[in-house]
Amino acid sequence: MIRLENINLNYQVPILKDVKLSLSEGEILGLVGKSGAGKSSLLKIMAGLQDADSGSVYLDGKKQALVANMLIPGFKQVAIVNQDFKLDRFHTVAENIKEAILHWPDEKREKRVRNLLKLFQLQAISETKAHLISGGEQQRVAIARAIADKPRLLLLDEPFGHLDAQLRQNLSTYLMDLRDLDGTSIVLVSHEGQDVLGMCDAICMLRNGKLSKKFSPENVYYHFKTQVQGALFGPVNQLKLTEHNILFRPDEYKIASNGGHPLRFIRSVFVGGLYHNYFEGPQHERILLYAFEPLAHIHAIEICKK
């Protein structure tokens, strides 16, 4: 569907280095990296809003024109939601969504706007001007506007930053339905891997200008090389042993009947459905273990890497 070949970008220093990426129809890809890693710049190149210093963008096998040669920047059938939202500030919420599909028949357009207002829980502010609503509400309007015309490729830059847990779940469900029903390809960009972990077919990491190969969510969660890399996708425990350190997730353990690694229980916190159990290791390490019950009776564990 979209393919990037040897994308390079410099802002006095290298930002993107020989980036290659292919995305098939209906694929949901998570793009994870720290702030300043170049994620937003890469999205703009994919959307046809910015030229790379070198390299090419292909859509359905066809090489795309340079942005500098476009009368109106932007690739057709590619929608992007940036962190600045770019709404028409003095138009209402409903008008902002409607403007994306003015070419639709009236009845079909009005139904689409109503459905999107309901999906993103915007009915109560549908007639409020965009500059008078909160940042979280503006983000929801921006996403609704972007998907109104059913693009083939949807690019979302930090889409969950201003959404509460329920709205995140609603958005996640809708995006997966959008993929399943319309074959829409989606790229989700985040500096928090946990935001995209549960809804992606594959995940890439952008670090020092280099884009990793694709990993499955399970692979990227359980098989990491450093604590910094692993922490992008959730809590990582570290036990400091004499010969080496062990890194493991809070669910990669079993209770030791004999021997094992000694721990001192600190507290349990119920987080809904399970408990977060906090321990201290022999070298004063803070250890987090997931369980369906408090683990105050536990004094040692064995680590079970997956």
Summary, kept brief:
This protein is 25% helix and 30% strand. With 306 residues, it is an alpha+beta fold.
Helix proportion: 10-25%
What would you report as the Rg, rounded to the nearest angstrom?
23 Å
> What is the number of strand segments?
18
How far apart the termini lie comes to: 33 Å
Identify the overall geometry: globular
Largest sheet: 6 strands, mixed
- What percentage of amino acids are in beta strands? 25-35%
Q: Mean of the pLDDT scores?
A: 93
Strand order of the largest sheet: 6-7-8-3-9-10
The chain-level structural class is alpha+beta
Low-confidence stretches: none
| N-to-C order of helices and strands | EEEHEEEHHHEHEHEEHHEEEEEEEE
Notes on the structure:
This protein is of the alpha+beta class. The chain contains 8 helices and 18 strands. The strands form 5 sheets. A 6-stranded mixed beta sheet has the order 6-7-8-3-9-10, with helices on both faces. It has a 4-stranded antiparallel beta sheet with strand order 2-1-4-5, with helices on one face. It is globular, with a radius of gyration of 23 Å.
Per-chain topology:
Layout: E1 2-11, E2 13-23, E3 28-32, H1 39-47, E4 54-59, E5 62-63, E6 78-81, H2 93-98, H3 106-119, H4 135-147, E7 153-157, H5 165-182, E8 185-190, H6 193-197, E9 202-207, E10 210-211, H7 217-222, H8 227-231, E11 237-240, E12 245-248, E13 253-255, E14 261-262, E15 264-270, E16 275-280, E17 286-291, E18 300-303
Parallel strand pairs: 3-8, 3-9, 6-7, 7-8
Antiparallel strand pairs: 1-2, 1-4, 4-5, 9-10, 11-12, 13-18, 14-18, 15-16, 16-17
